[in-house]
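User: Hey, quick favor. My workstation is busy. Could you predict this chain's structure for me?
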Amino acid sequence: MASIRRKLKENVNDSKNTRMDLASAGVLGNWRPDELTHMSRYDKMVTMAIEESKALGRPIRILEIGCGEVWPMRVLYKAYTVKKADVVQHYVGYDIDPACQQEHPYWPNGGEDIHGSAWFKTINGEVRIQDLTTNPKLALEDEYIDFFYTTEVIEHMGREFIEPWIAEAARVLRPGGLAYVSTPNHDGSNEKLPEDHVYEWGFQELRDLLDKYFEIKSVVGNFIQLPNFKKAQKLHGRWSPDQVDMIMERFGKQWQRMILAMPYPEVSNNAGWVLRKK
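Assistant: No problem, here it is.
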């Protein structure tokens, strides 16, 4: 995995400030399951935003925790031929790294303030720098947000720091508002972790937390080890043999690991949760 690691001047609780270098991955062809899954999540969130704005009949207000390079909004801007102002009324991203306020935060010399970029202005974008482990309060009104998402952030903070800002995200989300959360789906042991992870939540452990604030609409596996898929398929058979054959015929192993994971979130490496505020 191509990663960018930046040491922060202030990082009181030793959160891991690590980003996947998707720009370089695209140039180098480094499309492993992690990279592919990131891109598919961004596309999923953009689709969710467009559908939510259509359902409400108005542009929506979006909150992202751990926004980094604001990839989902870049995907909306570049990949979708829709009027962006019809989809997003206001975007607010929170991150620990001051570099995220630059247009290209992890490129050499960074570039201009992202708030001056024309594309970011079309969605009334803001990036706010804040360490949520020391101050989880979000400077947003109650029920202001329509769509909250956070992807691959939870695992980079200590377990005790997560619920306070999840509760805050729920506070600022309107009743029935949409949310999407993805994070590694740990097997229950945190003895061996990637160097950039602090704590990985188990499947039921995370379900219990999210269920306190949201109605769980769906949860799917994002990618899976193929031996785990074969074991799960043998036990539960959620894909028909013909479906598995078609996937094997059409896709290589990296895409197979993504696609075949979907019905098996409990044993996948990573799971994505679609939620609605209770």
